[in-house]
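Our consortium's second objective concerns turning raw sequence data into structural hypotheses that experimental partners can test. To show how far this objective has progressed, the report includes one record in full. It was chosen at random from the queue rather than selected for favorable results. The single chain below, 139 residues long, was entered without modification.
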Amino acid sequence: MKKAALLLAVGLLSSVAISCNDHDDYEEITNVFATKIDSVQIPKNTMLLGSSQEIKTFSTFTKGCEGIYSQDYQYTNDSVRTVANYAYKTNGVCGDGTYVDGSRINFAPLKKGTYTFKFFAGKDASGVNTFLEKKITVE
């Protein structure tokens, strides 16, 4: 009986020690940041009211440790939209080279007019945000 109780106690202590191990074998996101949009695909620069189109944005990432995290789409006013891709960086080992990935916006305007899209293109030498600007006319 003493041996069974001792084995049970050792087994319980072992399971507690193992379950409290904080050394998980997966990468963690260590940073999220706005990343430069390298290019934009807009199928039509003129469209009809009531229709919609998919706009694609592309950014470049380091292999193995970075990727697309999310996208920010802001209405500055009725006709101006500001778009930024956000990237993540992990604590994993970065590989050699880069790859391109992106996100999509479904643009379905509610009014006729010219819409200006400002896509975050990084910062200039003075630290000021720069943008790629594209226009879509809605008839």
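The partners drew two points from this record. The beta strands are 29-35, 39-41, 46-47, 53-62, 66-75, 80-90, 98-107, 113-123, 129-138. The chain has one domain: 27-138. Both points have been shared with the crystallography group to help prioritize constructs.
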